[in-house]
Specification:
The complex is a heterodimer of chains A (114) and B (115). Chain A is mainly beta. Chain A is 0% helix and 61% strand. In chain A, the strands form 2 sheets. In chain A, strands 2, 4, 5, 9, 10 and 11 form a 6-stranded mixed beta sheet that branches. In chain A, strands 1-3-8-7-6 form a 5-stranded antiparallel beta sheet, with no helix packed on it. Chain A is elongated, with a radius of gyration of 14 Å. Chain B has 115 residues and is an all-beta fold. Helices cover 0% and strands 52% of the residues of chain B. Chain B contains no helices and 11 strands. In chain B, strand 4 and strand 5 form a beta hairpin. The mean pLDDT of chain B is 93. Classes of the chains: A mainly beta (114), B mainly beta (115). Chains A and B meet through strand 4, strand 5, strand 9 and strand 10 of A and strand 5, strand 9 and strand 10 of B.
Chain lengths: 114, 115
């Protein structure tokens, strides 16, 4: 069964304490992997799209990487405003030819303390 | 602000009722996606429309239906509501038809409470 698993479920960091969030996936026909940031009660905000293993993308204090089985979101020297839930999603081939599906992980709740 | 708008922001209704959620995509986007987010289940993909045509279906219940109109706005209809339908409903839009990798931009959501 296709699955996207994020770990840890929750993470507390001190300001400036770098860490990584993990997204592991088991899907057939991965077409793309997405990272989003979601603040409480708001819609997910797009961060990155990764297309193939070995790809890396950076934005400010965030860096996303992709392997054949997982993706990492590295947060360097985080600040309190980085506190949010980070969601990982994959676009994969669907059961029928020419179709596709989107599967989201349940997210990692990040809290950065000042 | 993603440019995707959703109305209403909040909706409170009773079991057995029917409601309609509305979404307007970003200017220039032809695709609209609907998602349900419950506390214990994360974001669940419901359905995708491209330029008025249904393109992909996810875990959408038969009690739920959607359509996309010629002006590209979309409506999600939920009927015979149950307590378990209480959730945040998000709409997202993108430029492409979904067959290529296509970034989705999310709206602010509609919070549905079924009493």
């Amino acid at each position: 069964e296709d699955q996207v698993t994020q770990s840890p479920e929750a993470l507390r960091l001190q300001e400036g304490e770098s860490s990584s969030l993990n997204c592991s996936y088991t899907v057939s026909g991965l077409r793309g992997l997405f990272w989003y940031r979601q603040d409480p009660g708001k819609g997910p905000e797009f961060l990155f799209t990764l297309y193939s293993a070995g790809e890396e993308k950076e934005k400010e204090r965030l860096k996303a990487t992709l392997t054949k089985k997982e993706s990492f979101l590295h947060i360097t020297a985080p600040k309190p405003e980085d506190s949010a839930t980070y969601l990982c999603a994959v676009q994969a081939l669907g059961e029928n030819s020419g179709t596709y599906k989107y599967i989201f992980g349940t997210g990692t709740r990040l809290k950065v303390l000042a | 602000d993603s440019g995707v708008t959703q109305t209403p922001k909040h909706l409170i209704t009773a079991t057995g009722q029917r409601v309609t959620l509305r979404c307007s995509p970003r200017s220039g986007d032809l695709s609209v996606y609907w998602y349900q987010q419950s506390l214990d289940q994360g974001l669940q993909f419901l359905i995708h429309y491209y330029n008025g045509e249904e393109r992909a279906k996810g875990n959408i219940l038969e009690r739920f239906s959607a359509q996309q109109f010629p002006d590209l706005h979309s409506e999600l209809n939920l009927s015979s509501l149950e307590l378990g339908d209480s959730a945040l409903y998000f709409c997202a839009s993108s430029v492409g038809d979904g067959r290529g990798v296509d970034t989705q931009y999310f709206g602010p959501g509609t919070r549905l409470t079924v009493l």
